[in-house]
Amino acid sequence: MPLLLNKVGDDGRFIDALPEGGYPFTDEEDIKKQRKGMWDIMKKLGTNLVEGKDLVSVSLPVYLFEPRSFLQRLTDTWAYYDQYLPIAAKTDDPILRLALVISFGISGLHQTCIAKKPFNPILGETFEAVYTIDNTELFVEQISHHPPITTWEMKGEGYSFTGQAGYQANIRANALKASQLGPNIIRLPKYDTTIIYEQPIVWLKNVMFGSRVMEYYGNMKFEDRASGLTCDVKFNPDEKGFIGRWFGSSKKSPSDTVRGEIKDSYDQVVGTIEGSWLGYVDFTDSASGQTKRLWSIGHNMPNYPQAIPNPLPSDSRFRPDAIALAQEDLELSQQIKEELENKQRREKRLRKGLTE
């Protein structure tokens, strides 16, 4: 289930975050089950087939799952929307407006620190929900089976948040890397602008052995097209190369550090973003030199959507395999899951036959 990581250390980061960076998984029972599942898959497919294979297409045993669909899980990362998007929709300063959207994008990343996997959505599956704090409506739908693509729409006062995401995940050398591919789009009609950003890459270290740690790496690129502002937020920006690790003398920041420069259309720095995806986001306005903490894991409280009454029959909450898992009937859940997967494969072959 979603995390409430509200205990922080002196550095503003989640108190259990590793000093060198990253989120540690410490539930040995869950880790043991997951490793058994991966070894079973390797025995079935062969190690060489698993290495580098897109795991999105691999069928996994239900004891590795939580009783939710990915459509429901996806919304966890938007848990702080109410503290940023409605405010951005009324903020005249385009630099601060972009900083608020950046804070929204970064603040929810720690919500993905969940050991268990959600169920892969079925083609046509939906999730309808509402944020009761302000009656903001949310609709999520799975529009493609292979490749898997999810699309969503959130409508609030003065803004909309839409997007679509494809997914890739593979294992190489005891590490799992996963990507959410596709644009996140925030429209602010009052300012006739659209802000688009991308997600960073998830890096789960020590999947098969060793102490398991979750990291993000790469960049999140934000673009405000109307104002010409951009920001390239770098994860683990102080990472040194091979030579730097041997000869560098400066102290390295934790690997969960994030840092970026907001630049105008003339490539001039007009603001900076710095913090940790496991702790906080600070924004500094270059003109005034003032720094403001826009997000703190210890003070900002998350807000999760509630499923609406009487949703479409395709809603995630009606999935029989997830319901069986929630009732701790693993045998029935596994049976239904396999039936649904086989049904999707048959329907895919039918669709392919109709288009050839």
TrEMBL record:
<dbReference type="GO" id="GO:0005829">
    <property type="term" value="C:cytosol"/>
</dbReference>
<keyword id="KW-0175">Coiled coil</keyword>
<dbReference type="Pfam" id="PF01237">
    <property type="entry name" value="Oxysterol_BP"/>
</dbReference>
<dbReference type="GO" id="GO:0016020">
    <property type="term" value="C:membrane"/>
</dbReference>
<dbReference type="GO" id="GO:0032934">
    <property type="term" value="F:sterol binding"/>
</dbReference>
<dbReference type="InterPro" id="IPR037239">
    <property type="entry name" value="OSBP_sf"/>
</dbReference>
<feature type="coiled-coil region">
    <location>
        <begin position="323"/>
        <end position="353"/>
    </location>
</feature>
<dbReference type="InterPro" id="IPR000648">
    <property type="entry name" value="Oxysterol-bd"/>
</dbReference>
<protein>
    <submittedName>
        <fullName>Oxysterol-binding protein</fullName>
    </submittedName>
</protein>
